[in-house]
Write a structure and sequence with these properties.
about 15% strand; 2 domains; 9 strands; 2-enoyl-CoA Hydratase, Chain A, domain 1; about 270 residues; alpha/beta; about 40% helix; 6-stranded mixed beta sheet; 3-stranded mixed beta sheet
C-alpha cells in the first residue's frame, strides 16, 4: 500500500511506523488513522516483524486532532460528528473491550513501542497509552488538553491513565491539561524511559531489535494478552488462565529452545511457535 500520511519501514525484525505530517506536528486526521490501522495490521501479520515502533516525523510525536477537523466538528450536529467515534471492525476472536477505537492496539499480538520524540497532546497523548512501552526523548512534552477544548476524557483515557500513573496524577493531568516534560512524565510513570534527543529513534530501534531476538515471540504474544485481559479479570480468573497457558507452553518449540540455548550456552533462536 502507498501511504500518504505515515511511513512504514521494516528491517531486522522491527517495523517502524512514522506519523508523517511534520509541518503540522503530525496532527491527527481520519486518513492518518486509517493508514495507521492498515500498517499495524500488516506488521501484525508479517512473520519478519516481531516488534512495532510508532513515532512521529520532525519535531513532534502528535499534536492531537487536526484543528481544522475540530473546527468542522464544532460547527456540525452531533450525528454527523459521530462518524469520528465508531469502533474498529475486528474479528470475533478479539474481546469486545479491545474492539474500541485506539484501545484495539491492546489486541495487537506483538509489542508496540511508542517512541515519543516531541509534543504528544490530546489524541497524541491518548494513543501511546495503548502501546506497551512509552519511551520519551528529552524533548518530549505531554498534555491531555481536553479540558481546555471543552472536551472530556476521550477514548477510554479515564480508565487507562489512572492505571498507569495512579488516580491523583491522572486527576491532575486531566483536570488541569497542564504540559509536563519528559522527566516529570518519567517520575509519575507515564513513560518508562527518557533518552537523549540525539539518536533517539536509533536507540529505540536498538532496544526493539534486542527484544526481537533475545526472548520468545510466543511468550510475548501470550503475556501481552494475559496482562491486558487480566485488567478485566479477578485474581482467580487470571490465575486459572495462567495455568492453561503454562500447560500450552510446555509443548512449544520456543519452550524447547528456551531450555536448550541456556544449557548449550549459546544465543537463542526462537521461532515464535
Amino acid at each position: 500500500m502507498r501511504y500518504e500520511q505515515i511511513t512504514y519501514q521494516a528491517a531486522n525484525l522491527v517495523a517502524t511506523i512514522t506519523l508523517n505530517r511534520p509541518d503540522k506536528l503530525n496532527a491527527w486526521t481520519q486518513k492518518m488513522e486509517e493508514e495507521l490501522a492498515v500498517a499495524i495490521r500488516s506488521a501484525s501479520q508479517d512473520d519478519q516483524v516481531r516488534v512495532i515502533i510508532l513515532t512521529g516525523a520532525g519535531k513532534g510525536f502528535c499534536a492531537g486532532a487536526d484543528m481544522s477537523l475540530l473546527s468542522e466538528i464544532s460547527q456540525e450536529s452531533a450525528p454527523r460528528a459521530g462518524r469520528f467515534l465508531v469502533d474498529m471492525e475486528m474479528g470475533d476472536d478479539v474481546p469486545a473491550d479491545f474492539r474500541k477505537k485506539h484501545a484495539w492496539l491492546l489486541s495487537v499480538p506483538k509489542p508496540i513501542i511508542a517512541a515519543i520524540n516531541g509534543p504528544a497532546v490530546g489524541l497524541g497523548f491518548v494513543v501511546p497509552l495503548y502501546c506497551d512501552f512509552r519511551f520519551a526523548s528529552e524533548k518530549a512534552r505531554f498534555s491531555v488538553i481536553f479540558s481546555k477544548r471543552g472536551l472530556v476524557a476521550e477514548y477510554g483515557l479515564a480508565w487507562m491513565l489512572p492505571r498507569l500513573v495512579g488516580v491523583p496524577n491522572a486527576v491532575e493531568l486531566m483536570f488541569t491539561s497542564k504540559m509536563v516534560d519528559a522527566h516529570e512524565a518519567l517520575r509519575i510513570g507515564l513513560v518508562s524511559r527518557v533518552l537523549p534527543e540525539e539518536n533517539f529513534l536509533e536507540a529505540v530501534q536498538e532496544f526493539a531489535r534486542e527484544l526481537a531476538v533475545t526472548v520468545s515471540p510466543r511468550s510475548l504474544r501470550v503475556m501481552k494478552r494475559q496482562i491486558y485481559t487480566g485488567l478485566l479479570q479477578n485474581l482467580d480468573q487470571a490465575y486459572d488462565a495462567a495455568l492453561e497457558e503454562m500447560r500450552g507452553s510446555f509443548g512449544t518449540e520456543d519452550f524447547r529452545e528456551g531450555v536448550a540455548h541456556f544449557l548449550e550456552k549459546r544465543a537463542a533462536a526462537f521461532t515464535g511457535r
